[in-house]
Amino acid sequence: MARVYLVLALLAAAFWVYSIVDCALQPPTRHRGVSKPIWLLIIVLLPVLGGILWWVIGRARRSVAPRFQAPDDNPEFLGRIASVSDQDERIRRLEEELAALDSEAEDPRDRRIDPPPTDDDTDEQTRGNRS
């Protein structure tokens, strides 16, 4: 029976020390109820009960940081793109304008490009002018 009491005493002491360290290392914004020094006094003066009170009442829970979600898993993002009809409308108008410009413009591939004059052509032109 003495061994059981010894093990329980060691567990209580470890819990007490862990509670003191946890309370001391927490930022003051994470202490609920009373200030940090008061919580340390409660834990030190009431070893096991103070630690239990610290873990149940005094220690504020960590705020859950938003986890990164891929865009296709994020319902907020998916809701936003469903309502982007103004962008779709703008893209449609731009495509219509481009199609209109393409139909008005002459296709440069259809134009016949005359080859540049060669030296022989210029000689014949000058000879023809002299005669």
List keywords for this structure.
6 helices; mainly alpha
In terms of DSSP E residues, the strand content is under 5%
**Intertermini distance:** 138 Å
Any idea what the radius of gyration is? 42 Å
Q: What share of residues is helical?
A: 55-70%
- The structure class reads mainly alpha
- Let me know the number of strands: 0
Give the number of helices: 6
**What is the mean predicted local confidence, pLDDT?**
78
Catalogue the unreliable spans. Answer: none
Shape: rod-shaped
What is the oligomeric state here?
Answer: single chain
Order of helices and strands: HHHHHH
Largest sheet: none
Explain what you see.
It is built from 6 helices and no strands. The chain is 66% helix and 0% strand. The protein has helices spanning 2-25, 36-45, 47-58, 75-82, 85-104, 119-130. The chain starts with a helix and ends with a helix. Helix 1 (2-25) packs across helix 3. It is mainly alpha-helical.
Set down the secondary structure blueprint.
Elements: H1 2-25, H2 36-45, H3 47-58, H4 75-82, H5 85-104, H6 119-130
Helix pairs in contact: 1-2, 1-3, 2-3
